[in-house]
Amino acid sequence: MGKMALGYGSEFHLLRWTGRHRNKFDNKIKQLLNIDNITWLDFDFSKNKNEPDKELVGLSFLEKEPSYKAVISQWKEEWPQSGNSMNWDLVGYTVKNNIKTWVLIEAKAHIGELENDCKAVPKSLIKIGKALNNTANNIGTEILIDSPWSKKYYQLANRIYILDLLKRNNINSKLINIYFIGDKIGSSRKSPKDIATWKVEIDKMKKYLNIEKSNSIDILDLYLDINK
Questions:
Q1: Nearest-CA neighbor of 113 among 38, 24, 27, 5?
Q2: Given 17, 88, 125, 178, which is the most exposed site by the fewest CB atoms within 10 A?
Q3: pLDDT band for position 44 (50/70/90)?
Q4: Which alpha helices (DSSP H) does 112-186 contain, by range?
């Protein structure tokens, strides 16, 4: 968790929406998922000098789930445990008919946040590649030769892996990608001012990952204007 920017950036705007506009934010989530309740987990504390909080990492949010040990065991078998794990911008859950569904949130404020490559060492990269290939097969698609999931849009790829892992362990989950509209523009930042601009880039990402036609992954997009 890096130092949060003041007045701009996805972390700042997500904190605004969940703190100062909580009711509006929750209503947006409820409408998107067609649910009537949502409970958000707190962040952990840390000794970070800039910001004494720590994002929820990996599968730590499942600690109280009965199947936690089994899922962790499978995760450790399939995925490297060294290096950086998945950091979640926000994690919550909803309950309907006594069935819990986890809600995983990723937030973006500028186009550059969509892209990143896997930085794992070669040995770990091989293991990750195998896990991602299996995930692609499980959701009814394939990884194209010129579009490896460990490159360019790796973050979304490893989030899809997590959704698949949870599904294989009978744990319901959904990923919501939040795209902020109207963020501060800097010399190195391309911050969309409308939904259409975001959608062009999101379509590129989905095409690269070859998931445009996959109906086996629960990913939803939510657009929030920072000024409305």
A1: 5
A2: 125
A3: confident
A4: 122-138, 154-168
